[in-house]
Amino acid sequence: TADLLAGGMHTAPRSHFPDALGQVRASLKEFAAACRWLKEVHFQELELVGCWETFAQWCERFEARFAVLAEKYGEHKAKEPAKLRRTLFPAPRPGEFGELRDLQSLELFAANLHGANALIIQAAQGLRDKELLATALDADEQIRRIQAWLANQVKHRAVHSLLVPM
Q1: Alpha carbons 103 and 79: distance in angstroms, whole number
Q2: Which of 55, 77, 81, 109 meets the CB 3.0–4.6 Å disulfide criterion with 30?
């Protein structure tokens, strides 16, 4: 009731699926942009650069697949993923410790992306939309791969980045 009074108007109930679809698409776009930005910051780390480019391409492909579904269901643009990217990556963090911090930030971003996609999976089941479900499940598999790779990189780089004086 307080929300309705504060809003000043009563709005008709609506489905929030277009909000979730906008959230996952914006998250995919911003994750790809973060990966490409990190490539420029840590250009000397060829392993990181190559993986980040692959992740960006995966995200772009899934964003395009979700775009087709957004035409079917509608979409409300989400601003939160862009804010999250700016918060997690406020400025370049060069060096080994900067790489570690950026990998941790990318882990958080991937968790946000995973959560946004999890909502789409549930909605696809409720809608009984096989195409939507297949897209979301394919995206889930790739997002989990990204998360596993990031977790491994953080563990692999932590000891050296934290203990070896530079």
Answers
A1: 23
A2: 81
pTM of the model: 0.89
pLDDT in tens, the chain (166 residues): 555 555 555 566 778 899 999 999 999 999 999 999 999 999 999 899 999 999 999 999 999 999 999 999 999 999 999 999 999 999 999 999 999 999 999 999 999 999 999 999 999 999 999 999 999 999 999 999 999 999 999 999 888 888 787 7
Q: How far apart are CA 38 and CA 41, in angstroms?
A: 5
How far, in Å, are 21, 24, 97 from residue 68 at the CA level?
A: 11, 13, 40
Both structure tokens of 53: 């480019």
What three-state secondary structure class fits 23? helix
Q: Which residue has the tokens 């992306």?
A: 113
Q: Taking the CB of residue 165, how many other CB atoms lie within 10 A of it?
A: 3
CB contact at 8 A, 18 and 45: no
